[in-house]
Amino acid sequence: MVMAQTPAVAASAASAPAALAVKLDPEKSPRYPWQALPPRATADAYFTNLKDGDKIETPFRATFGLSGGWGLAPIAKPMNGRNGHHHLLVNRELPLDFKQALPFDERYIHFGKGQMETVLNFPPGTYNLRLLLADDQHLPHYVYSKPLHITVTRKRDDVDPKTLVQKGVALLNLTDGQRVKPPFRVQFHASGLNIGNSVQKEAGTGHFRLTVTPQTGKPVEMLFPNGETETWLAPPAGAYILKLDLVDNVNPSALLSEAQPLTLRVD
Is residue 59 within 8 Å of residue 159, measured between CB atoms? Predict the structure, then answer.
């Protein structure tokens, strides 16, 4: 079970990300064949399985995304630049002062290990949720989500929250055999596993590797050592096999997890 850094909340189609001030710098982001710049040159934290107005039952596994070339990094080893860790704000607005560290309480839930998800265990009621990225000192970046207003209709005591988290990685927004038009987003996810920048060499963390193999020709291997959790692709029309792995940050020759390959048809 993924645990947040406060006990108040149990380990603790995507919402539209907000337009923010942080701009993507393509000169600092490595490009691979078929990799495209995102349509919007802004950075966002966002929920990948919740949208505004949703009604849910708890326990509920909420999953997080991060765009604009930003990556996740655990707080154990400080990082500079386009890295941070998620915070879940519960019934709280964004802080007025981004030069003040975020507090630790049940309304500011920290994910300083590099987690991409949490299990919500709220009682019935209405909640305002927001994601905010911050650095190793818990100072906010200008990378956050739009607020989501959700309603918990029922809390189920017959569901063990631990059963909602199954360790592994997945391509969240794509299905086997799907037809897509370029450019298209590829969202990575790690459940029960932590993401970090490879230079930290933090035990128990990994970074994503995406291998794209055309029907004819050589595969293209794309590494995301900065802890990035998504990319955009624009390959030529044809059939491709996508394979996602999580590479160990301590031992790059080892995998922490791998997903089943899936086939896409690019029109």
Answer: yes
